[in-house]
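Fold it.
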Amino acid sequence: MNRPELLAPAGSPEALRAAVQNGADAVYLGYGQFHARVRASGFSEIEFRDALRYCHLYGVRVYLTLNTLLTDRELPAALEQARMASRLGVDAVLVQDWGLLSLLRDCLPDLPLHASTQMSVFTSGGVRVLRDAGCTRVVAARECSREDVAALCANGGAEIETFVHGALCMCYSGQCEMSAVIGGRSGNRGRCAQPCRLPCSVTTLRAGDDTPPSVALRRHLPPEVGDKSAANAHALSLKDMNMSAHLQELCDMGVACLKIEGRLKRPEYVAAVTSVYADLLRERRKPTAAEAALLERAFSRSGFTDGYWNGRPGAHMFGTRSGDGDDAEARGTYENGRKRKITVSCHCAIQNGAESRLTVSDADGHRVSVSGQVPEAARNRPLTPEAVSEQLRKTGATPYVCDTVRVEVGDGLSLPVSALNALRRDALDALTACRVAVPERRERPAPQLPDNDFTADASRLPDSTPDAPRLADSADAPRYTVSVCDPGQLVPELLELSPARVAVPLEWFGHGFAAPDWLRDVELCAILPRVWRDRDEDALRELLRRAPVSGVVAGNIGHLPLIEHAAAYGDFGLNVTNAYSAAWLARHGLQSVCVSFELRTGQIRDMKKPLPFEAIVYGRLPLMITENRPGGTRSGDTLTDRAGAAFPLLDAFGGRTEIENSCPLWLADRDAWRKIGLSFARLRFTTESPAECVRVIRGYRDGLPADGAFTRGLYGRGVE
């Protein structure tokens, strides 16, 4: 049977000791500002050094999390942090950012890289792309079922790591923008404010209400219209995952690593949960009633769920915090002494006329030998093997325990107890040095970006004055692109903007969609589903083969293996925030990329552009894409928060849901975005009626102010 690695969270030095002393095979931690749990107390540089030595002494691997999106200015510091960690012997680095992945692979070729769950990987094709890019391990999305995980293990070609216990985010990791857009705190930068845990509910239109949905949505219908179940009261708050009953399945399908979530949790939580899972793996069994109670006492949200694993999302998966125990027994496992011991074998030879010699070996293959004092002839009682063995077994406060001791003693010899103690001490010190030794790794300088630059010459653009021509009419201004969610949004007035391309969902072509004749001179593109599974790929390839499109819009790294003959344009889901990410995607075949809407206009302006850049300049910004319907129901038109804001719910491929912002981004009357070197500017239609689409088109054609509620997005204020 495959024995997966048990990976525990270490949000602090105390939590790290709790994980190690309770049976973790590896820990993951962050220090500095470039990791996805900045709110955890974390580690100073000195504490990080000490953590590496402590963990490696016990044979526990250490993974550094550098799993956030990075700007151009931050990349050098993140690379230097990785260099230092590599020199200190870190066992792997987890990454989210494509640019950092590229730099680490080029600059630190011997450092193992793991693809974070923030990369949103849930297909074998995505795993293979990351394997070929240099990742030895890929962390699968938490939403994967047993069927999905089995496919990744069988077909991905890299180690697969899965979460088995802890918090579930409502949104696919790496795709959540709710905290960023609402509060300016980015989950992609480790600063999520967790708005999903606050009260909110799903609301529906009143029976018989024939008001167009786009109008009714802005009316902020009251919460009492919708489902009043407990799940609906916290319609985005999922229970914690608990896979303790499914470990045998995970082992059998070849999962390489089982991950416990919880870098923001207390050390007692880490100790209790790690201990239970370590015992279950070692003894190959399911949890007892007492162990199940211990897990729930450590932390739960109205119990646990394994709904995603079983392929059964629904209302039963929702819950709020109900347990946060203070387990003194768990605290004692890492505060008082050492629960975990390192088993060693000893061979001691004491012979006449030769230095005494002790060889110590451990189960990991380390072996050291030391020499000591030459024995003398015994004056009274000669030295016996039993006496030597007894003395060598006195390892005291060290982490070592002697399993077997083999002693060879010549006749009539004597050696002081102090000499035997020194021999044992020197041997164990040498073994410690061997266990914590740092591997030699190559280092290279950072490569330069390619010389090609698609930045428009903003200096030749006219100033925004009443007498100056509109920037939208300038040859150097970005060309418009359009994406739609409903066939009715394909209005002929789109041609007034001379769009470079129009994008529609790929699945439309499976339902008889035919593009209107007036679109024949505009490039028609298919938007690939942002979330899908291996089992969907044959159908998606067939749709791509039959669809009369010349381009595709790709928002996930797993899309690359699906694209064969069409031009590929990167979507916002790829989270591009720096030029190295854009260059990496260009090398993988993309012809343009839509940059993250978390960036400020100045950051986009200052980026070198190794391929044409696109940005969303109109539309409801996508806040989440979810596997489970908010509240667990299949009905409902909006999500209403406690402030009364209404967030439209759109159906997404595979029965999933996309949550849109409560009001659209409007930049038609602003000129700043036209001066930052964009090649394309996206109008993103979601809930708009045909008439509303026409108003938007003409508003952007003429540079008009918004008509109704709107947001300026994050381009002016950015995110933490």
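The mean pLDDT is 91.
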